Amino acid sequence: MPETKKEQGFTLLEMTVSLSILALMAAVSAPTISRWVDNTRVSETEEELEYLSQSCIRYYRDTGVFPPVLTSLVANTPARSGWAGPYHSCNPNLGANETDDMAKDAWGNDYILATIDAFTRRLTSKGRDGVVGGGKYSDDIVIRFNSNEVSRETTDRELVVINSAVERYNKLLLATEGALSTNYTTMLATLKSYGLLINSNEYTTDGWGQSYVCGSSPVQEVKSSGTPSN
């Protein structure tokens, strides 16, 4: 029987159909892939903002102020007393071959550190569009953080010392010297004069910069009025 010669390669029609199918698949999958990439970048940026905010709080805990710029987290510039950084290193969520540019988001835009009030800061990523704001359609990613945790720690620590001094005064001197003044500044001076509170200058205000409250006479306990309203 005569041998039949096998066809080699594709016909023009087969190639056209195949390319059309591939083009259709690409058109359908491209938006999905784009959304997946954007969602990944949003997640990475949100994690980095949280990590940066915690670094800023650690800076505040040591220096008593927030960093003026993000680079102050890794270099003591401008110089601050108590600086014990660096406070920001490679994000632990990054892979072994990934790099961490703390000043830029996942789209390569600079983060913006802004002051809300004396105790609150805001970190902003411009998002995909690279523009701050945008009203109703803004894609900015924003995180606010404050010093309340650190201020509360400072206040609690100081109150232990102050109230210990008040307790010793009442136990040793109340009967002979009379009750402590309900004016906090005067009370501090009295405790210092009797050697019951050595560094009284450190206890003039609570962690939020407000004067402590003595209560009614005879003073039994000093308190803080707590977090100030913004």
3D architecture notes:
By secondary structure, this protein is mainly α. The protein folds into 2 domains: 14-146, Glycoprotein, Type 4 Pilin (2-Layer Sandwich), CATH 3.30.700.10; 147-230. Helix content is 40%, strand content 8%. It is built from 4 helices and 3 strands. The chain has helices at residues 12-63, 148-172, 174-177, 184-193, and strands at residues 112-117, 120-125, 141-146. It has a 3-stranded antiparallel beta sheet with strand order 1-2-3, covered by helices on one side. The longest helix is centred in the first third of the chain and has 52 residues, at 12-63. 20% of the residues are buried.
How many domains, as an integer?
A: 2
Using the alpha-carbon principal axes, give the shape: rod-shaped
**Average pLDDT figure:** 83
First and last CA, distance: 97 Å
Q: H/E order of the elements? A: HEEEHHH
Strand-residue proportion:
5-15%
Estimated radius of gyration: 31 Å
Quote the CATH topology of the largest domain.
Glycoprotein, Type 4 Pilin
Helix content: 25-40%
Main sheet: strand order: 1-2-3
Instruction: State the CATH superfamily name of the largest domain.
Output: Glycoprotein, Type 4 Pilin
Tally the helices: 4
Tell me which CATH architecture of the largest domain applies here.
2-Layer Sandwich
CATH class of the largest domain: Alpha Beta
**Which runs of at least 5 residues are low in confidence (pLDDT < 50)?**
none
